[in-house]
Design goal:
single chain, 403 residues, alpha+beta, Four Helix Bundle (Hemerythrin (Met), subunit A), Immunoglobulin-like, 2 domains, seven-stranded antiparallel beta sheet, five-stranded antiparallel beta sheet, binds 2-acetamido-2-deoxy-beta-D-glucopyranose
């Protein structure tokens, strides 16, 4: 049995490290990008097309955004532009930041409001203030740095980005097909989310949030409490011994393996968006990981059932176990709040929790019924010995010796 456990544990750790490495590799280009002068931004999102990335820090107190827009895969005889469209979407109305190599051979950045499809991106004031704009070009990539004073009262906007050729002094029209016609969407500077403007495709961050939510809600939020129900209520049936123990272990170790994967996705989400803090959710998550890990190791270190320390081990195991379950459920709800707007998920989860709770209440009543009945018949059989082994749970623990 111990060998089986160790194998289970070991394979879950293997899976986890694989998972961590691959998720790191995937997002490496965005959040680990090192700007010159060690500039740091709280949030980074790859834009869906045209090798572009948007990095930014949002300051709620003065409603400004410091951003860096990177556009790769171009040469220095190209222009690049990124803009917010305050009242409309896509190109017309976009308040753009533009970068190119100008006629004196220097990388030049300026602002340009787009008023119609015939624009040549002439320099002009935007509808909001841009106190700072600069650009650089390295490794076939333009980077525009700017500070925007956002229009008041909102943080979510339509955005568009683009590139095209420069011939002589003139900016040429961008390509009229492929990705150049798909380079628009939405950005929310406060919560860090990008979206497509029809809302039809889900961005990678949203997808990762959903994966994180499902992994954790299923593992910590459903499997863990179910495993506890197995342990507590199957024990009472003599026929379910030692099956309950294997069920409990299988349930908790798989919950732990999936849960740690989910926990990893959470850490990744958190580190990719340091400007957006769900501190309670994060702290409970870290606490859960520690307590969960402790539980798994406690399993390997448990004393034999008749060992004099077994009682203390039991108390400890139950205390941590129930704490984990309560914190897990709280944190799943914290997670729903962080996702905000996932009402159906929340309802579904509430349904599942109520079902598990109801089953537990029924089984609890049934267990007491059995225990009392058993006690009665025991004391009838051995009147002088009535208090011995009176509790179904400690009976179960003793019988688990063979496991
Ligand atoms: C990351 O960047 C490297 C080189 O800049 C490129 O080869 C690789 O495809 C990029 N990976 C992703 C996931 O964008
Ligand atoms: C806005 O506030 C942040 C700190 O909260 C500060 O670093 C930044 O310089 C301010 N920006 C402007 C344009 O005042
Ligand atoms: C080229 O760009 C640099 C840097 O922004 C600027 O100082 C210079 O005036 C520009 N030259 C012309 C001809 O626009």
């Amino acid at each position: 049995m111990d060998r089986l456990l160790r194998t289970l544990l070991f394979s879950s750790f293997l899976l986890l490290s694989l998972f961590a490495t691959s998720s790191y590799a995937q997002t490496q280009n965005c959040s680990s990008f090192a700007f010159r002068n060690n500039q740091l931004f709280a949030t980074c999102n790859p834009l869906p097309v045209l090798n572009s990335f948007l990095h930014w820090s949002y300051h709620p107190d003065n409603h400004t955004v410091d951003l860096a827009y990177r556009h790769g895969g171009v040469t220095d005889s190209d222009w690049v532009a990124w803009g917010l469209n305050i009242d409309g979407s896509r190109m017309v109305g976009a308040q753009c930041l533009v970068a190119l190599r100008n006629s004196s051979g220097q990388i030049h950045a300026y602002t340009s409001p787009v008023t119609d499809y015939n624009t040549r991106l002439a320099q002009g004031e935007l509808s909001f203030r841009v106190p700072r704009i600069a650009a650089e070009f390295t490794n076939n990539e333009f980077i525009i740095f700017a500070t925007l004073v956002l229009p008041s009262g909102r943080t979510s906007f339509n955005q568009a980005w683009q590139n095209g050729g420069v011939s002589g002094q003139t900016l040429q029209v961008h390509a009229q097909s492929g990705d150049n016609m798909r380079s628009f969407g939405t950005v929310d500077f406060a919560n860090g989310e990008l979206g497509s403007d029809g809302g039809s495709s889900v961005t990678s961050r949203q997808r990762r949030r959903h994966v994180h939510g499902v992994l954790n809600a299923v593992s910590w939020g459903v499997l863990m409490p179910m495993g506890a129900v197995f342990a507590r209520y199957l024990k009472v049936f003599k026929a379910a011994n030692p099956a309950w123990f294997y069920l409990h272990v299988a349930c908790q170790t798989s919950a732990y393996a999936v849960g740690v994967a989910g926990w990893g996705t959470g850490l990744k989400l958190g580190s990719d968006s340091t400007g957006i803090k769900f501190n309670t959710h994060r702290n409970i998550g870290i606490t859960l990981f520690c307590l969960g890990t402790l539980q798994v190791f406690a399993l390997l270190l448990r004393p034999k059932p008749d060992h004099k320390y077994r009682l203390y081990w039991n108390i400890y195991h139950h205390a941590i176990g129930y704490t984990v379950i309560i914190l897990s459920i709280i944190n799943v709800f914290e997670g729903f709040d962080a996702l905000n707007g996932q009402k159906n998920w929340k309802r579904a989860y509430i349904g599942v929790i109520i079902a598990i709770g109801a089953i537990a209440v029924l089984l609890e009543a049934f267990t007491w019924f059995i225990v009392i009945k058993r006690k009665k018949s025991d004391s009838n059989k051995y009147p002088q010995n009535g208090t011995n082994g009176g509790n179904a749970y400690s009976n179960g623990t003793h019988q688990q010796q063979q496991a």
